[in-house]
Specification:
Structural class: mainly alpha
Strand order of the largest sheet: 1-3-2
CATH superfamily: Winged helix-like DNA-binding domain superfamily/Winged helix DNA-binding domain
Helix content: 55-70%
CATH architecture: Orthogonal Bundle
Strand content: 5-15%
Number of helices: 7
Shape: globular
Order of helices and strands: HHEHHEEHHH
Radius of gyration: 19 Å
Number of strands: 3
Number of domains: 1
CATH topology: Arc Repressor Mutant, subunit A
CATH class: Mainly Alpha
Length: 151
């Protein structure tokens, strides 16, 4: 457990707060992805959902929700939109109809071809090398895990 901070050590402006930096970076990432995803007709949340499915097709909604660190109540409307676009299909479990599985369609799978160039553009746009990006990912994962474990 880290030592308690003195009031004088606490951030005094929004720019000094780690939460604001993460919030601002998240918005900047969404804005940077938008022009790359527009030709595909996707939003960033739809794209990362498809990315997980490209790795592991046929996930249960609950497992997909966990991978995306997203509440299933937020994920369900997103999945409905992806299904309406023809990129996925939802299917009830054969042994337990309460379970819903998500499968890519041919259209959804075909979108994967665009992923490497989108990823390369985003990496280049950061101005960071891969070592620095991996360190950032590790730090953000540690932050996410720490904050999640306190909830």
């Amino acid at each position: 457990m880290p030592k308690a901070l003195a009031t004088s050590e606490l951030p005094s402006t929004v720019e000094e707060m780690f939460c604001f930096s993460v919030y601002a970076a998240s918005h900047a990432i969404n804005r940077a992805y938008a022009p790359l995803l527009k030709p595909l007709g996707l939003t960033y949340p739809q794209y990362i959902t498809l990315t997980v499915l490209w790795e592991s097709d046929g996930l249960r909604v609950g497992d997909l929700s966990q991978r995306l660190k997203m509440e299933s109540s937020t994920l369900t409307p997103l999945l409905k939109r992806l299904e309406k676009l023809g990129h996925i299909k939802r299917q009830r479990g054969k042994t337990d109809e309460r379970q819903v599985y998500i499968f890519l369609t041919k259209t959804g799978l075909a979108l994967k071809k665009a992923a490497p160039s989108i990823t390369a553009c985003m990496i280049n746009d950061t101005g960071m090398d891969l070592k620095a990006l991996r360190a950032l990912i590790a730090s953000l994962s540690k932050l996410t895990d720490a904050l999640t474990s306190t909830q």
